[in-house]
Design goal:
The protein is α/β, with parallel strands linked by helices and 169 residues long. The protein has one domain: 3-Layer(aba) Sandwich (Rossmann fold), CATH 3.40.50. The chain has helices at residues 15-25, 47-66, 82-90, 108-120, 127-135, 154-168; strands spanning 2-8, 29-33, 72-77, 97-105, 146-148. A five-stranded parallel β-sheet has the order 2-3-1-4-5, sandwiched between helices.
Length: 169
């Protein structure tokens, strides 16, 4: 049986870092970051590009789900609303597939510190702070497990996800 693991959370919370580690700990695993599905310059967010990114994500995830070599599919993206998550899931062929969804969250102070670290390395711009802080409380309204990342290592967070996955089998 396949396993699709979706990890969401605001920019800077550590989704990509955690998924890159999980990829090495799960057998026959592939990782897709939703941001890769619309990495364009200039970055344009409108209805056309929103539809495009959802189509791109669904296409790639469905290809991974069909691939006989793969057992575990990791997907991360901001996904700050239940309706976005539902839209992604509705586009997928999930027969004979276990689905696990998690939100990574942290305090506003931790989020700002992490994003400022990325800014100092040239990985993000200053405007990311406000956008991430605006989205952070939205995860509390979603009906998915929340994993608090404050003061924890990437290894500890990945292990918590692995423990939850094993409990649900």
């Amino acid at each position: 049986m396949k396993h699709l693991i979706i990890v969401c959370g605001p920019m800077g919370v550590g989704k990509t870092t955690v998924c890159n580690l999980l990829k090495t700990k799960l057998p026959a695993c592939v990782f897709l970051d939703g941001d890769w599905c619309w990495d364009m310059h200039p970055f344009v967010v409108n209805q056309e590009t929103k539809n495009m990114v959802l189509d791109n994500i669904a296409y790639l995830l469905n290809q991974f789900l069909r691939c006989s070599v793969l057992e575990n599919i990791l997907f991360c993206w901001v996904i700050q609303e239940q309706s976005i998550l539902n839209s992604v899931i509705a586009r997928l062929s999930l027969e004979d597939c276990q689905l696990s969804v998690f939100a990574l969250v942290c305090s506003p102070e931790t989020l700002v510190a992490r994003i400022q670290g990325d800014i100092s390395q040239g990985l993000r711009t200053e405007d990311c702070i406000q956008r991430s802080l605006q989205r952070l409380p939205l995860y509390q309204d979603m009906d998915i497990p929340k994993i608090i990342t404050d003061g924890r290592t990437v290894q500890e967070i990945a292990q918590e996800i692995l423990n939850e996955i094993n409990r649900s089998k």
